[in-house]
Write a structure and sequence with these properties.
- The complex is a heterodimer of chains A (329) and B (516).
- Chain A is built from 13 helices and twelve strands.
- Chain A is of the alpha/beta class and 329 residues long.
- Chain A folds into two domains: 155 residues, Periplasmic binding protein-like II (D-Maltodextrin-Binding Protein, domain 2, 3-Layer(aba) Sandwich), CATH 3.40.190.10; 144 residues, 3-Layer(aba) Sandwich (D-Maltodextrin-Binding Protein, domain 2).
- In chain A, strands 1, 2, 3, 4, 5, 6, 7, 8, 9, 10, 11 and 12 form a twelve-stranded mixed sheet that branches.
- In chain A, α7 crosses α13.
- The radius of gyration of chain A is 22 Å and the shape is globular.
- The N and C termini of chain A lie far apart (82 Å).
- With 516 residues, chain B is mainly α.
- Chain B has two domains: 238 residues, Orthogonal Bundle (MetI-like fold), CATH 1.10.3720; 265 residues, MetI-like fold (Orthogonal Bundle), CATH 1.10.3720.
- Chain B is 75% helix and 0% strand.
- Chain B starts with 9 loop residues before the first helix and ends in a 6-residue tail after the last helix.
- Classes of the chains: A alpha/beta (329), B mainly alpha (516).
- Chains A and B meet through α2, β2, α4, β7 and α9 of A and α5, α10, α11, α16 and α20 of B.
């Protein structure tokens, strides 16, 4: 009896030792990435199958919340990899000194050049105004069209949401010094400004607004997951601003090799093929099997607009003032 | 020991609760300030936010409480089948997650809502919900139930003898209002006004969703922005101080105007039959209008979500279990806090102010402060659920004390001398005098705390990790993944759990008279 308890105890200790030897990789990301319907669960399974490690996701709100969380934790952070910032946030993230170079240079399928030493894209999308094509047969084809229309749009607040900030940059990149005038023109069209994407999209789905600021890929969700072809994205002649979502390695990580392995894994087929139908964005590297069928029906805007991270950071505060002054009337 | 002396245990228990609350509020703020670098200054936009915050909170409080008067009076004096159920259901908007409630409200009053469809069918212009009117309307939707419940407690405590005497003396409606109901309202209404004002003071999502744009920026949003957008902790703390200052001024003003409690001893006899005729019609009107305003949006939420309830993923049910656990812990903590501060508050004023202070603080600052304090000690995600329960309890405490303290003080005023004269022991006084009169408001308070905890998104967002998601967070994530139909199913589950917990806790603690 005593011996069996001892044996059980030893077994227990040795199992714990085995567990302790399994390295843990902490990836800090945004909420919708780790949800059951996001890429998280599949990515975790695929990476754990090859890394001999335990992949743990920590989640915080959206991209901006992820950055705020990292800045709050500072060098004390558990995170080894941060995944889900976009190029409007990376200048601030880089300035924190919390990221280390990834040292990778995979071939990417982006509508823009990429050479950031700290951050590596995992997916991207164009911002766009999504509408119901059964109700609006003739959607606006530019910001000026939208201003001249009697449509109502719901947008996200640039101070609390990454798409909201993306729209700010979109108008800035397309109109530069004229952007204040564009915002003044848009003001009467804007039904309301929501804290985040999901609230805005919900208002749109409930028929509160004619259009919502979302992505060109949003109609693919309705088409593929719901068999619903009534949602479309309006193509604007000014071009569409890009959201490039990136990941980076935390400088103070205790698992540098594993973190780098994860970033390398991120641009492989195993990871990239999960993205289109879970994150509903374009994969950074088109999988060998190609994109899901529904993606072929999506608009393909040109030109693609994107401010470099430093320019985006510099433009942010003045653009926000313009936005606020125009909309506060 | 006899009752005229305060039992020795009460003071240290209240002091302990006080310490926890002060640490939670001031400690969090101090932690944020400590991590801040550089000097923070208020910008012109902040003054605009301050003005909007005060205007919307004041209007919301005033409208909620004024509308609550006829509704509470009608509910207090009428008896009809389903009355208790109606009262419980009417409380639902207050405990609903903001997004669920807004969805329901929009279904009725939104651009494509029932009201606008009816207006359009009649050839009239559609009315817009977006703007200050929408913010106030939504806040009234949330806070009318709370105001009604608080005033209802006041009506329930008018001694039946007064009403019988009024009837015997042939008081008309005006005399009854002036001589009996008005004195009660002057004691209860300021507290209700303060509570609603303070809730609306830290409003964030409602103002942003329905405000129509940056003109409707509240201070809490500005704090959020300072954190999230600029990562300027100093500015966040400064704005939080401004917000707390406004809240304290409001508390001070309303505490100042409150009249001294009149001492009305009663023998808790049955009330006389309520007046008939026009009064009866008006009461019916008040109840049915309030019920329509509060219940139709809920009905829409239920009708929309019910079909999707069956195919909710397993993770949602796990999240529901977690939420119930958080609510249970939060309710236990709240019970301890409330009892300690209520008993201590029988003889001194500070417990009330201290309890209210939690409403003055910015939830965002508390969450961030706790994160800063805990981060060096433990992985914040490992304590996400207990911390959520603690913050929920602190946030619900002001409402709990609002409900328990006035009746506790009234009971003490009425019976303390009698107990002392009879030589009742503290235990006997608690059991025979205080408990029967306080269990109903205490049941209400704890039920409210449990339900609020279930619906709260709060600090879990900041602390969250995979495997710690609560039901509101699960709903948020569903919405973030285009699964708005599943999210509607979760909304029904949330509504059912919050309401079910509320009714259960209220009945368990409050006993037969709960909901009176």
């Amino acid at each position: 009896m005593t011996r069996s308890i001892l044996a059980a105890g030893l077994l227990c200790v040795s199992t714990q030792a085995a567990l302790a030897e399994t390295p843990i990789l902490h990836v800090l990301t945004y909420d919708s990435f780790v949800s059951d319907w996001g890429p998280g669960p599949q990515v975790e399974a695929a990476f754990e199958a090859q890394c001999g490690c335990d992949l743990v996701f920590d989640a915080a709100g959206d991209g901006a919340a992820v950055l705020a969380r990292l800045l709050l934790e500072g060098t004390r952070t558990d995170a080894d990899v941060v995944l889900g910032l976009d190029t409007n946030l990376t200048a601030q993230a880089a300035a924190s000194g919390l990221f280390a170079p990834h040292g990778l240079s995979p071939a990417l399928d982006l509508p823009a050049d990429w050479s950031d030493p700290l951050f590596l894209p995992f997916d991207w999308g164009w911002f766009a105004f999504v509408y119901d094509n059964t109700r609006i047969p003739d959607p606006p084809a530019s910001f000026r069209d939208l201003i001249a229309s009697d449509l109502s749009v719901v947008i996200e607040d640039p101070r609390s949401s990454t798409p909201g900030l993306g729209l700010l940059m979109w108008v800035k990149a397309a109109y530069g010094d004229e952007s204040a005038e564009i915002w003044r023109g848009l003001a009467p069209r804007i039904l309301t400004v929501t804290p985040g994407w999901s609230e805005a999209y919900d208002l749109f789905l409930n028929g509160e607004a004619d259009m919502v600021l979302s992505y060109t890929t949003s109609p693919a969700y309705h088409l593929i997951a719901e068999g619903d072809a009534t949602k479309s994205a309006a193509q604007f002649s000014e071009g569409h601003y890009l959201q490039v979502e990136v990941a980076g390695m935390v400088a103070g990580t205790d698992q540098p090799d594993l973190a780098r392995q994860f970033l390398a894994f991120m641009t492989t087929d195993a990871f990239q093929s999960i993205i289109p139908e879970t994150n509903w964005m374009y994969p950074a590297v088109t999988p060998t099997a190609g994109l899901p069928d529904g993606f072929a029906t999506l608009i393909h805007p040109a030109p693609s607009l994107l401010l470099p991270p430093d320019a985006a950071l510099a433009a942010r505060d003045p653009a926000l003032d313009e936005w606020r002054n125009a909309l506060a009337r | 020991m006899r009752w005229h002396a305060e039992p020795r245990l009460i003071k240290p228990a209240a002091a302990l609760v006080a310490a926890v609350l002060v640490l939670l509020n001031l400690g969090a703020l101090a932690a944020v300030l400590w991590r801040a670098d550089g000097e923070a200054t208020l910008q012109p936009a902040d003054w605009v936010a301050l003005r909007f915050t005060v205007v919307q909170a004041a209007l919301s409080a005033l409208v909620s409480v004024v509308l609550a008067v006829p509704v509470a009076r009608a509910l207090a004096r009428r008896r009809f089948p389903g009355r208790r159920l109606l009262i419980a259901l009417m409380g639902a908007p207050f405990i609903l997650p903001v997004l669920v409630a807004i969805a329901g409200l929009l279904a009725v009053l939104g651009r494509n809502g029932m009201v606008n469809d009816a207006l359009a069918a009649l050839g009239l212009d559609r009315v817009s919900l977006y703007g200050l009117q929408g913010v106030v309307l939504a806040h009234v939707f949330f806070n009318l139930p709370l105001s009604v419940r608080l005033l209802l407690q006041g009506w329930a405590r008018i001694p039946a003898e007064h009403l019988r005497l009024a009837q015997a003396l042939g008081f008309g409606a005006r005399a009854r209002f002036r001589l009996i109901e008005m004195p009660m309202l002057t004691r209860i209404a300021p507290g209700a006004l303060a509570a609603v004002f303070l809730i609306c003071l830290t409003s964030f999502a409602v103002a942003l969703m329905l405000g129509g744009g940056p003109a409707a920026t509240t201070l809490e949003l500005a704090i959020y922005q300072a954190f999230r957008f600029d990562f300027d902790l100093g500015r966040a703390a400064l704005l939080a101080l401004v917000q707390a200052g406004v809240g304290l001024v409001a508390l001070g003003v309303l505490g100042f105007v409150r009249l001294p409690a009149t001492r009305q001893a009663g023998l808790d006899r049955l009330a006389p039959a309520p007046p008939g005729g026009l009064a009866r019609v008006l009461d019916l009107l008040a109840i049915s209008m309030a019920a329509t305003f509060l219940l139709v949006p809920l009905g829409v939420v239920i009708a929309r979500g019910l079909p999707h309830l069956a195919d909710l993923p397993a993770s949602v049910w796990a999240a529901a279990g977690r939420s119930l656990g958080v609510a249970a812990l939060s309710t236990l903590l709240l019970a301890g806090f409330t009892v300690a501060l209520t008993l201590a508050g029988l003889r001194r004023r500070w417990p009330e102010g201290l309890g209210m202070a939690a409403l003055v603080a910015s939830p965002l600052v508390i969450g961030t402060g706790l994160f800063i304090v805990l981060n060096p000690l433990v992985a914040p995600s490992t304590v996400a659920l207990p911390v959520t329960a603690l913050v929920n309890a602190a946030m619900a405490l002001p409402f709990a004390l609002r409900a328990t303290l006035p009746p506790a003080r009234q009971t003490e005023a009425d019976f303390a001398r009698l107990s002392a004269a009879l030589g009742l022991s503290p235990g006997a006084h608690l059991r025979l005098i205080l408990w029967p009169r306080l269990r109903a408001p205490l049941g209400f308070a704890l039920g409210l705390g449990a339900a609020l905890s279930i619906g709260d998104l709060g600090v879990i967002v900041l602390f969250g990790q995979t495997g710690t998601e609560t039901l509101p967070l699960a709903m948020q994530r569903l919405m973030g993944a285009y699964r708005s139909e599943a999210a509607q199913g979760v909304a029904v589950l949330l509504l059912a759990l919050a309401l079910g917990t509320f009714v259960l806790v209220e009945r368990l603690i409050g006993g037969r008279d709960a909901g009176a």
